[in-house]
Amino acid sequence: MFVNSNGYNLGVREDEVVVNDVDLPPWAKKPEDFVRINRMALESEFVSCQLHQWIDLIFGYKQRGPEAVRALNVFHYLTYEGSVNLDSITDPVLREIPETYFIRDSHTFLLTKDFIKAMEAQIQNFGQTPSQLLIEPHPPRSSAMHLCFLPQSPLMFKDQMQQDVIMVLKFPSNSPVTHVAANTLPHLTIPAVVTVTCSRLFAVNRWHNTVGLRGAPGYSLDQAHHLPIEMDPLIANNSGVNKRQITDLVDQSIQINAHCFVVTADNRYILICGFWDKSFRVYSTETGKLTQIVFGHWDVVTCLARSESYIGGDCYIVSGSRDATLLLWYWSGRHHIIGDNPNSSDYPAPRAVLTGHDHEVVCVSVCAELGLVISGAKEGPCLVHTITGDLLRALEGPENCLFPRLISVSSEGHCIIYYERGRFSNFSINGKLLAQMEINDSTRAILLSSDGQNLVTGGDNGVVEVWQACDFKQLYIYPGCDAGIRAMDLSHDQRTLITGMASGSIVAFNIDFNRWHYEHQNRY
Length: 524
What we know:
The protein has helices at residues 31-42, 45-58, 65-70, 92-96, 113-126, 144-147, 233-236, 518-523, and strands at residues 165-170, 177-183, 192-197, 202-207, 229-230, 261-263, 269-272, 280-284, 290-294, 301-306, 315-321, 326-332, 337-338, 352-354, 361-367, 372-377, 382-386, 391-395, 404-409, 414-419, 423-428, 433-438, 443-448, 454-459, 465-468, 473-477, 485-490, 496-501, 505-510. The protein is an alpha+beta fold. It folds into two domains: 11-91 and 108-149, Orthogonal Bundle (Neurobeachin, Chain: A, domain 1); 165-210 and 225-523, Methylamine Dehydrogenase, Chain H, CATH 2.130.10.
């Protein structure tokens, strides 16, 4: 809305300056900065703490009466709901009185045609006050600013409170952990961190919600002595490895990586690709048994991605293939299958076919909230499709950014793409390149915080780094690990980062994005 991207002729001002893009204040270098900083201000703790007072003025007890007078919140009487109903003035004589309205006494007057027109003009030009919804003060919103001053409150970061590394969990198998899925919500039947190794041995490692706030849902004092992740007993005891090993043959040319797996939001099923028969498959995490085989591609399926889940566990699944296409599928949380109909689960139909790539698809991300799929092929630009299959645009990277390998998209509409040889780009959803950087690490995993403000990266150097997503400003470097990072995910509360390592272990890090938040740094 601030950019005349279509080059319309908007005229010339009196000082002969051509009207074009909106002039921004000095603190915003570009329109994206203006939007981002305004969003940060409106979502800030300062605004959160004052929000109830605004509600009192506009919708609440300070809208009318003595409280409105005290708050200097009084407007022209015609703007208030119920003060006049133009449709109710049906008397034709009343509308036709030609003379100006006159006052009979200090309190009454006759409505005239001119006066009705004046009322209409008043309402059209100045609007009307909304309905009064509340007659008592609105309670303040719970905010971090309030909570951080409570005794022993761990919500806002205290440097002396937490170590960077919480725990290291070493699996008996030395196979690299190539996929990590932290579905840790307390209401799940089994809150867990599901891991999958390069040899396709998976583990359902129980999550103990020990890092939550006291009094928060899912927090229990009897678990406080536990470490947050408990190793899957079938793996720890070596007693039920047959229930955890995927033995079906994959195509020998497939390189097993994080893109080969998707775990459903309830931790009950794993979807795996790379099979020689051009399918991807669904397995139960409880029994390890195959529950569905899904065909649709003309060549080996090379990558999978899952959208955020709706209520009930429904979500989108996207599969990418060597046939240079992507297929969009629907996962039914009710029936635990791809497709809506359990009677036709043998041959489910994709919701959309996404075309446009010239080479094997290697990475993909899908956002149900935005209704978009962003994908990257072995070489060439990344493509943005709608979930109905329409190709919207290509994201042309800078020079030397030709081989995309990782994609992460925020619900705010920002797309982070990692290219080979340490190159990163940040695009707006309209295809504008917002920032770029180059680092000295072969990155294997990236993820964005839930608000899209922070980027976390990890790679062969074994170092987790945190960046500001909008401009790639480095915020923090965690102590280095003794092996490369292959995968990572965040717990539901955004307080724990779990990384899968090339040495066959997982590492849990304390992470608190508040710590790098501009308000926390300036105020706390």
